[in-house]
Amino acid sequence: TLDNFTILRWDAINEEEEYLGFPLMGTPIVAWAEKTEDPIINEWNEAVLSAALITRFSDIIVVHSVSGWALLPLVFLRQNLYTDPRKPVAVEAGVNTYGEPDEMSPVLLTTNFALTFYTVASDIESAKLDCYLVVVDSEGMSVESAVAGRKVTADIIAETLEEYKVGDLVKHRHLVIPGRSARLSGEIQELTGWKVSVGPMDSSGIAKYLEEKWVPDPED
């Protein structure tokens, strides 16, 4: 079956056989046809066959097991099949808007590592904050790793603020950076002229931080 699936996809691409490009369905459920002393053996065999089919172009698989230990690895395998392990998953750099921010709303900063970005975005949305989130291109690294590896520096942050014209969005000049990038605060302030505040170490504390400390002065 694995060889046949490979041949079908090969011919679909290299021989331009249109009909061989349709979705392929695999049935690892056949692992249950064999009688074993313990059903776990069948689950194991089904999971192994499922993984092999997924890596060999199966678009649909039919399984019998509902055990988490058998299914979750398959989900992770499928979701990461087309990612490059040498290149972290990243989002686009830029400025994201949340809620209905105005010219006095907070300006926050994070990196473009996908996990970091979506965690921060989720915390902002769940707190129903009105703010701007500046996403710096860190080559897909988290805040701490990017700062340590010089993928995010004060110069890069200054260039990002200028490139995306963040200053045109607000009247104040007050930037909140992640707690794990605190070492850059002084240099950012010198390069940009923005007043820099060091935010919480974890994005779950953003709402409380802004409630207690966000009192920008338009003159800053």
From TrEMBL:
The coiled-coil regions, if any, are none
Which residue range or ranges hold the CO dehydrogenase/acetyl-CoA synthase delta subunit TIM barrel domain? Answer: 1-209
Matching entries from InterPro entries are given as:
Ac-CoA_synth_d_su_TIM-brl, ACDS_complex_subunit, Dihydropteroate_synth-like_sf
Q: Gene3D superfamilies, from UniProt?
A: 3.40.50.11600, Dihydropteroate synthase-like (3.20.20.20)
Enumerate the PANTHER family for this protein. Answer: ACETYL-COA DECARBONYLASE_SYNTHASE COMPLEX SUBUNIT GAMMA, PTHR36214
Q: What is this protein called?
A: CO dehydrogenase/acetyl-CoA synthase delta subunit TIM barrel domain-containing protein
Native species = marine sediment metagenome
